[in-house]
Design a protein that fits this description.
Strand content: 15-25%
Number of strands: 13
CATH topology of the largest domain: Nucleotidyltransferase, domain 5
CATH architecture of the largest domain: 2-Layer Sandwich
Low-confidence stretches: none
Structural class: alpha+beta
Mean pLDDT: 88
CATH class of the largest domain: Alpha Beta
Strand order of the largest sheet: 11-10-9-12-13
Number of domains: 3
Distance between the termini: 65 Å
Number of helices: 12
Largest sheet: 5 strands, mixed
Order of helices and strands: HEEEEHEEEHHHHHEEEEHEHHHEH
Radius of gyration: 23 Å
Shape: globular
């Protein structure tokens, strides 16, 4: 066996053990294995040689771990408290689970804090200045003297931006927009890009202990907020997806084609979100969870909602017919449903632009309020 094949061979070997034990591999996520028997549930999530176990029966788990230890040398670390640089804590009396990357943030600030100059030393409450649009104009010419002089900052920029992406993907949705924007200039940033990068570090220094809290409410379903910003050449779409009131999936993406109107940009954002909703719905099915109602997608664009429901809107969407038919078909088949939400409470707006400080803080407050109380449109 060559070294390059070792990882694959291990994955095949471990998968064969799990399947032989009676588990079923998820068709949606190949790292997920599920076991159902007489109301007993065992879920296994595999990451290289680590396995995260969730169950509803201690005896079943003990039997599985016992047989696993006979086949492989293992270390049972007990209840989950730390995984992939994410701290996990539970409050069983309050029925909450908290994910935090505060130690990872502390390491980033400690390692790169020397780049924070006096002009950025003050506290900031939002990761990006209002209205900032990063572009290529500030990038130095490759192999020029300016490019060579920027080598140290470029290396720090790449490391920091990678760290921001990790934070944004795992627990800090409030970094998703700025992390995606900084990533566009990863290999050749200029002074304005580097300054924006260091501002995020200052934001994390002062706000990096913000956790992601799960407080499930079984009366609520799979709810989604989607928004798009038509203010750039390639519109940016963002979405927040809650299940039982818990925020567990989000994205901030630049669209791959130029939209001709704000309604079209919002419609494309809805299509991107619907794709993720289908994936999440099928993942829940693999976990044995069946949704009683179609996932609800909330948008602040009435025009986009009308296009998703009206088959007569051909003349407005004939130039994007395939994309238009995809979302319209999902709505028609009730695979997803769409609902209008006023722009003032569209919380997904935090993923589409760099808003003013007051707006950013208010959006975070609304997101927390929705997660805690289900308040989407307060009076």
């Amino acid at each position: 066996m060559t070294r390059k094949q070792a990882g694959r061979e291990w994955a095949v070997l471990f998968a064969s053990f799990l399947i032989g034990w009676g588990m079923t591999r998820s068709t949606i996520d190949p790292c997920l294995y599920v076991y159902f028997c007489a109301g007993k549930i065992l879920w296994i999530c595999v990451y290289v040689d680590d396995a995260l176990i969730a169950d509803n029966d201690a005896s079943l788990r003990d039997r599985f771990v016992g047989e696993l230890s006979k086949r492989f040398p293992i270390e049972d670390k007990g209840e989950l408290s730390w995984i992939l640089n994410v701290g996990i804590s539970r409050d069983r009396s309050a029925r909450t689970l908290t994910m935090s990357q505060s130690l990872y943030v502390t390491d980033l600030v400690s390692k790169f804090g020397s780049f924070i100059d006096e002009s950025l030393a003050r506290r900031v409450d939002c990761p990006m200045e209002e209205g900032v649009l990063l572009n290529k104009d500030d990038q130095p010419v490759v192999d020029s003297a300016e490019h060579s002089d920027f080598a140290v900052q470029r290396e720090a920029y790449m490391s920091l931006t990678g760290g921001y992406q990790w934070l944004a993907n795992m627990t800090m949705f409030n970094l998703a927009y700025v992390a995606s924007q900084l990533s566009r200039f990863l290999t050749n940033p200029g002074p304005s890009h580097f300054r924006a990068c260091i501002r995020v570090l200052v934001y994390l220094r002062d706000n990096g202990n913000r956790p992601l809290v799960f407080a499930p409410n079984s009366t609520r379903g799979l709810d989604t907020f989607v928004d798009s910003n038509w203010g750039t050449r390639f519109s940016v779409s963002g979405c927040l997806i809650f299940y039982h009131g818990c925020l567990f999936h989000w994205f901030s993406k630049a669209q791959k084609s130029v939209s001709l109107s704000s309604a079209e940009a919002e419609y494309f954002g809805g299509m991107l979100t619907a794709r993720d909703l289908l994936w999440l719905r099928d993942l829940l099915l693999d976990l044995g969870i069946v949704l009683g109602t179609p996932p609800l997608m909330q948008s602040d664009s009435q025009s986009a909602i009308n296009m998703s429901m009206d088959p007569i809107a051909f003349k407005n969407t004939k130039h994007i017919l395939r994309a238009a038919e995809f979302l319209r078909d999902l709505v028609h088949r009730e695979a997803v449903s769409m609902q209008h939400l006023p722009s003032r409470v569209m919380i997904a707006d935090i993923l589409t632009k760099a808003p003013a400080r007051v707006v950013f803080i208010d959006l975070l407050r609304l997101i927390d309020a929705y997660a805690q109380d289900g308040i989407a449109c307060p009076a």
